[in-house]
Write a structure and sequence with these properties.
The chain is mostly beta strands and about 100 residues long. It is built from no helices and eight strands.
Amino acid sequence: TKASVVFLDLETGKSRLMDPDPRISATPQYAPGEKAVVYRILENGNHNLWEQPVDGGAGKKITNFGTAYHFIEQFEFSKDGKSLGVTTGQRESDVVLFKDEGEK
């Protein structure tokens, strides 16, 4: 399924579409100044944040959580837009395989 972001002008009722990165994994939020939106991308088992101009230009990665299997729960910009707070978690997984050997 291809995702689109819709911008709706509440005064005129006009709308326009933006095509986010196809790996988008959450609802976008406006960045400070409202000239871009920020959304989570799932890549290689990790979430990272991407910023994309509302005019539809190319997005860019703004976090780099590497290969530790992080997921981003929440993020918020400071009021002045100079800092970004991110709540992350780390995925851990144990897989146990049981094999029935039958009666002995």
